[in-house]
Design goal:
115 residues, alpha+beta, 2 domains, three-stranded antiparallel β-sheet, 3 helices, elongated
């Protein structure tokens, strides 16, 4: 079971006494540590902690892991693109609303990754 609630990072880092280049940052939920992110330097440790915190929060908000959301997005994008192709081939007259085509094309454009 995954810890329920909003995950955040502590905003502080701890420097490893044995290797001062290596740092840790805590990920917390409900006032307790749920994970510890490591990195070479404070900035990398904090970036890793933010990523872990976001993944935990996304799961709690959606019920899906980030990987599951990415897979779902890919399937939705492919299905939407196929639908637009059919609409562009003349089937939109059956649907009766050309505006739906424009909206679907815009949604696909927003869903595609930025280069």
């Amino acid at each position: 079971m995954i810890t329920q609630g909003k995950w955040t990072y502590s905003g502080n880092t701890t420097i490893n006494r044995n290797d001062p280049v290596f740092c840790w940052a805590n990920v917390v939920c409900g006032g307790r540590r749920v994970a510890r992110a490591a990195g070479i330097g404070e900035e990398e440790a904090m970036s890793n902690a933010r990523l872990i915190a976001e993944a935990g929060t996304v799961y709690n908000e959606t019920g899906f892991t980030p990987k599951q959301l990415a897979e779902s997005k890919a399937e939705l994008l492919a299905a939407s693109e196929a639908m637009v192709k059919h609409i562009n081939d003349g089937f939109y007259f059956i649907l009766g609303k050309a505006d739906e085509t424009i909206n679907l094309k815009q949604a696909i454009a927003k869903a595609e990754p930025k280069a």
